[in-house]
Amino acid sequence: ILEGYEKGEINPKKTNVLDAIHFINSAWNIDVKPTTFANCFQHCKI
């Protein structure tokens, strides 16, 4: 995901909820810690 953003393939201003769900699913499959998810949601103020 980050690599795509750095290459300009992902525009964070055009990311929708479905995209976010796919990003979370990808991160979950590579063993990102639950605290990382919690911190992300705290920062986005949802």
From TrEMBL:
Residues 6-41 form the DDE-1 domain. GO terms for molecular function: nucleic acid binding. It holds the Pfam family DDE_1. InterPro entries: DDE_SF_endonuclease_dom. This is DDE-1 domain-containing protein. It comes from Gossypium laxum.
